[in-house]
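Summary for the steering committee. One of the milestones for this cycle was to obtain a three-dimensional model of the protein with 9G3 bound, which we needed before selecting residues for the alanine scan. The sequence and ligand used are listed below.
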Amino acid sequence: MLMSQLYAPTLRETPAEAEIASHRYMLRAGLIRRTAAGIYSYLPLGLKVIRKVEAIIREEMNRIGCQEVLMPIVQPSELWHETGRWADYGPEMFRLVDRNNREFCLGPTHEELITALIRSEVRSYRQLPLRLYQIQNKYRDEIRPRFGLIRGREFIMKDMYSFDRDEEGLNNAYWDAYHAYERIFARCGLKTRPVEADSGAIGGDETHEFMVLADSGEALIVYCPDCDYAANVERAEYRFVSQKNEAAPLELEEVATPNAATIAEITAFLGVEAADCLKTLIYVADGKPVAALVRGDHELNEIKLQKVLGCQTLELAGPDIIERVTGAPVGFAGPVGLEVPIIADRCVMDMVNCVAGANKADYHLKNVNIGRDFNVTTTADIRMVEEGDLCPKCGTAMDSARGIEVGQVFKLGTKYSAALKATFLDENGKEQPLIMGCYGIGVGRTVAAIIEQHHDENGIKWPMSVAPYHVIVVPVSIKDEKQAQAAEEIYTALQAAGVEVVLDDRNERPGVKFKDADLIGFPIRITIGPKSLENGNAEITLRQTGERFEKPISEITDYVLGLIEG
Ligand code: 9G3
C-alpha cells in the first residue's frame, strides 16, 4: 500500500469531543469517524484492526467447538413478548415498525432470537452440547454515548450461546469460554483481569466480566493483591469484622440542625465524625416504602439491597414519599419511630450513640442506639465495598482500580429456554429444558482498550498481532533517486515475503512522515536515509520500545519476518 493512496485522514489537533486517549487517537490517526452520537464509520485502518481482532476471536471460539452463525439485526417483537422483556428496556431499545405496522427492534442482544432459532430443531440430548456464536452489530440507545467505540449506540459484538443438557455441561461451556477469553485477550496484547460480577436483570447465577484496567474505565473493581479474588464493586463482598463500640449508651437528645441535611453538613454543624452518623435512605421496593441504613461514611449498594429484599423494582423514594413516610423533608430521615421495614448494613449494628435524622424538619437526634431507640427488620451486607476493605477469601486489604469491560461470560440456566419452551428429550424420552450460557466480547471496545494500554504522547503503539500494517518504509527524501530506489526494493521484497507493508511515497518533510508513522502506530518503521544508505544499511525503529538500530538492507526481510513471528 502506498501512503499517498491510503485513506487515513490524520489530524494534527485533538477533536474536542475526545476525552480519553483511545478516542483521541482513533480520530487523529484516521481509524474512525463519527456519523452521529455513538455511531461511527470505520475507515480502512480502523477496519483492518477490527477484522484482525475478529479473526483471533473466531480462531479461539472455533477451538472450543463453537459454530458460527449470523442472525438478523431486525428482530420481531413477538419473541421479546414471549420472554416478557419487550417492556423491560424502555428507551434503551431501538424500536421500529414495518409497512404492516408490525413492531420490531434492532437487536441489543440475541438470547431470544437464538433460542427461538433452535427450539424446534434441537429436540434430543444427542444433539447436545451445542455452541453457536455470531459477530454482529448490536444496538442500544445509550443515554450518554461517549469515549468513542467504548460506549456506542451501534457496536460490534461477538456473542456466543451454549446449550447443554445439565449444569455440568453448562459448567464445561462456561470455563471453556472463560479460558478462550484469556487466550483471545492475551493474543490481542491486552492485559485483562476477570472479575466476579453481578448477573443483573438477565438472570442466571454465576458471571465474570473481563476488565482492562485503565483509569478511563467506567467500571470500578476491587481486587486482592495476595489472592485471585477480584470483583466488580456492584457485586464485591468483604470480610466483615465486628468492632462493637464499647461506649455506654447515653441519653437520647434532640438537637436543632437548621438546614443541615447532608452528612457533610451534619458532621460540620455538630462536630461529629461521619462514621458516627446514620445514613437513612428511603426506597420504594415493588411499590412499598422501606428504609435502608448504612454508616455515614459508607455507600449503599443498591444491587445488594435489591437482592436482600428480593424485589423486582427498587428506586429511591421521591421527596413526597419521604415526607409521608418520615414526617419530614429530605435530609432529616432517621430510624427512630419509622413505621416501615428497616434493613441495616452489618456495620450499623456496631454503632453506639450515633447521630440520625429526627424525622422532623431541621432536627436530628444524638445518642441513638439500636435496640433501645429502634429495631431493624433485617441486617445484611448492603454496603459498597471500598479500597482497604478486607478480602473475603484471605483477609488482606484490597486495592481498587477502574476497568473497561471488554467481555463477559454468564450462566443463564433455563431463564430463556423455559420462557421460550426450548426443550429436549433425554434418554428416557422425558422433556427437559435446555441449560444455557451466553458469552459476549465487545470488538470495538477491545480495539479501544488495546489503544488505552498501548499508546504514548506521539500516538498508538500497536501490538504486532492486531496492527493494521506491520511495517512502514520511509525514505527521508523521495526526491533522492538512490533513497527512493532502495525504499522501493525493500518494500517489494517485504510484500513478496507476505509482510503487510506501507511505503511512504509522499513528497513531505521527514518530520511529517515520522509523526504520521508514530501517530498511526506501525510496529516497525524502516527509514532510508543518506548516511545509512552509504553503508548499504537502513535504520529500523521499533514503535513499542523506541529502539533504533541499523541493519544491512539485505537482512531486512528476514529480520522483519522474525519480529512478526516473535
Ligand atoms: C436489551 C437492551 C439492553 C441490554 C439487554 C437487552 C444488556 C441485555 C445483557 C446482555 C447479556 C449478554 C449476550 C452476549 C453477552 C451479554 N443490555 N443486556 O440483555 F433489550 Cl436495550 O446482553 N447477552
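Key point for the committee: The mean pLDDT is 96.
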